[in-house]
Every structure is written in structure tokens, then in C-alpha cells.
Design brief:
CATH topology: Jelly Rolls
Structural class: alpha+beta
Bound molecules: zinc ion
Order of helices and strands: EEHEEHHEEEE
Shape: elongated
Distance between the termini: 15 Å
CATH architecture: Sandwich
Strand content: 35-45%
Length: 132
């Protein structure tokens, strides 16, 4: 069964730590050994796993992506949000974390971030937890 995490982004570009929500779903599932698949069903958002301990890393990622993919650069997409589509493709729409002894096997400094590139809006992340 697929579960969903609802995310409300607060800015046009925003990295939101969803680790506690994912951990909650793993606990609720009762799965001790397996994998947790995370999928973002949006074309202007993404997901990444990176350092959650120091918020400056999150800011640096956002700042660097904005430098790599400026908001306006002569894009042809009429909706005016091509930069968001490109950032979405750069980071990707899915992530996978292994589960052992009922816990996500994240590294000490790792957190799971929902990546908003065309907010603020309401979004969701699909979560599929598979035992095995
Ligand atoms: Zn668009």
C-alpha cells in the first residue's frame, strides 16, 4: 500500500526535511527489514538525501542550484518555470532508504529533503515500504 506525506512549502525554492514523517511511516508499517521507496509525483519538485544537521548546507545547495539554473535564461517553456523543471530533473523524483531493525539506515548526518522549486504550494510524497 502506498502512503503519502503532505508537504506545504513556504517559498518558491525550499528544502524541507521530511525525515520525521518518513520515520513515522516506517514505524507504523511494522517492517523490520526492507526498503522504503520515496517518490515525488511533481515536475517542479524533487527529493534528495543530504546533511540535515547544519542548515547552512541546505542554504548552500539552494544557492548553488540557483546559480547553475537561473530563473530567467531565455527558456522557451511558456509557463515561465523552466528553471524549476530543470532543477527537478537534476535532483530526481525518487529516493530509496534501506530499513534494518525497524529503522531507516540513514547516515549520522543524513536527512531526507523534499525539494520545492516552484512554490509555495501544497505537495505530496508517495512512500512505499516493502519488507524483505
Ligand atoms: Zn512548467
Amino acid at each position: 500500500m502506498i502512503k503519502h506525506i503532505n508537504v506545504k512549502s513556504g517559498a518558491r525554492v525550499d528544502l524541507i526535511d521530511i525525515t520525521p514523517e518518513v520515520e513515522g511511516l516506517v514505524k507504523e508499517s511494522g517492517v523490520q527489514e526492507g526498503v522504503c521507496h520515496l517518490y515525488v509525483p511533481h515536475t517542479t519538485a524533487g527529493i534528495t538525501i543530504n546533511e540535515g544537521a547544519d542548515p547552512s548546507v541546505r542554504r548552500d545547495i539552494i544557492h548553488s542550484l540557483q546559480g547553475l539554473v537561473p530563473r530567467d535564461a531565455g527558456y522557451t517553456h511558456l509557463e515561465g518555470n523552466s528553471d524549476a523543471h530543470i532543477k527537478s530533473s537534476l535532483l530526481g523524483a525518487s529516493a530509496l532508504v534501506m530499513i534494518e531493525q525497524g529503522r531507516l539506515q540513514l547516515g549520522t548526518w543524513q536527512s531526507i529533503f523534499f525539494c520545492e522549486f516552484d512554490g509555495p504550494r501544497h505537495r505530496r510524497v508517495a512512500v512505499k515500504i516493502v519488507a524483505g
